[in-house]
Structure formats: structure tokens, C-alpha cells
Amino acid sequence: MSRTFYMTLMIILLLFGIVCQIILGILYQNMIRETDNMTVTENKILKTCKSKFATCYQINHGVANISVFVDKFLNRIKVGHFTMRGLSHLSGQAVLIGSLVAGIGVYKGIVQGVQMLDLLPFYIVSFMGLYIYFTVSSLVNVKEKKEILKINIIDYLENTMINKLERSMSRDGDVKIYKRQTNATKKREESKSRTDAQDMEELSDILLEYLA
Predict the structure, then answer these.
(1) In the predicted model, what is the mean pLDDT of the chain?
(2) Contact of 123 with 2, CB cutoff 8 Å
(3) Between 47 and 118, residue with greater pLDDT
């Protein structure tokens, strides 16, 4: 395999790792911004989180550990076929493999008797790629953004969502009680009407017998 192949593969892997970090940073930042007004958010991921929490809360009459619920939800968020956590790991692995490919390219060049000056691009591109990757990673800071997002979601669920669900469940309970009371009242009235009708019929029969 030629040096061009190793150089191309190394650049692709390094760029892939860097782009993954940027994508993760953008996704997390968008969700963090949307959590400022989660009540009317149009973000599909956050809307799914709200829907799942509401369903779980209503079925189980509460959520025992909201922090664990949010952790599990965040770990299952997918970008394409990969979870965001998996994509973050894949990003780091791509950069490491890119560095390894650079080393293989240099080794092959040395074996083939290539001058060190001609192998210098491998070192330059590799170091520059690593520098850009770690710079982007520190600026994006996926771990910190994920923690901020988690805190914002927990805050909304505990202080806003639960209150809404409690009020909704209370109203539903009141409606059910009202319906039961209304049905019971109707049944009593119908029973009383039937009883009155029977009494009138009996009284009519007695009068007819007396007059006869």
C-alpha cells in the first residue's frame, strides 16, 4: 500500500473524530437551549422525554428516582445508528486509530528506504490532527454539556412536570367522582320514578275496584 493511502486514511479518521465531537457539542447545546422553555419545546428528543416521563408517572403513580430516569434516557439518545455516548467513544477511537495508521505509514516508508524528510507530513498531519481534536474536545466539553442538560431536565420534571401531572390526575379523579355521583343520583331518581308509577297504578286499581 502506498504512503498516499495511509495519509488519506489517517486524515479521514482524524476528521471523523473531530466532526463527531462538533456534532455532539451542537446537539447538546441545542437541547440545553431548548430546556429553558421545555413546556413549549419543539425538540423531538425533549418531547419524547416528557412523554415517557408522563406515561411512567401515571402508570406507576410516581417516579422513584428522577435522576436515574433522566440518566437512562440520555444514554439511549441516538444519532443515526449510534447512541450519543457511543458516538463520543467512537470519536476517540477514530483519532487513536488515525494516529496508529500514521505510525504504520512511517514504518512502511522507513522499510522501503524513504527519506525522513518525505515522511515528515505524517508527523505534521498527525500532531495537527491530535491538537485540533483535543482543542475541539475541550471547547465542546461534551461531558459538562451532558451534565448541564441533565440538571435542566431534572429541574423541569421535578418543579414543573410533576405539578402538572398531579393537577391533571386530580382533575381526572374529580371528574370520575362527579360522574359516579351523577350516575348514582340518576339511578335513585329513576328508581323513585318507577316506585311512584307503581304506587299510582296500585292506587288507580284500588279506586276502580271501589267504584265498581
Answers:
(1) 80
(2) no
(3) 47
**Contact status, residue 56 vs residue 63, Cβ threshold 8 Å:** yes
Give which of 76, 48, 50, 75 is closest to 63, Cα–Cα: 50
C-alpha cell at position 113: 528506504
Rounded CA gap, 184 and 140, in Å? Answer: 63
Domain boundaries, the chain: 3-169
What does the H/E/C string look like for the chain? Answer: CCHHHHHHHHHHHHHHHHHHHHHHHHHHHHHHHHHHHHHHCCCHHHHHHHHHHHHHHHHHCCCCCHHHHHHHHHHCCEECCEEHHHHHHHHHHHHHHHHHHHHHHHHHHHHCCCCHHHHHHHHHHHHHHHHHHHHHHHHHCHHHHHHHHHHHHHHHHHHHHHHHHHHHHHHHHHHHHHHHHHHHHHHHHHHHHHHHHHHHHHHHHHHHHHHC
- Residue 79's DSSP bridge partners are 82
| 82 backbone dihedrals φ, ψ, rounded to 5° | -115, 145
Of the chain, the end-to-end C-alpha distance in Å amounts to: 124
174-207 pLDDT, tens digit per residue, is 445 435 555 555 666 666 566 655 656 665 665 5
pLDDT digits (tens, 9 = 90+) for 49-58: 888 888 888 8
Query: Would you mind telling me the total number of residues written for the chain in this entry?
Result: 212
Over residues 156-171, the mean pLDDT reads 79
Contact 95, 130 (CB under 8 A): yes
For residue 204, which of 212, 73, 92, 157 has the smallest C-alpha distance? 212
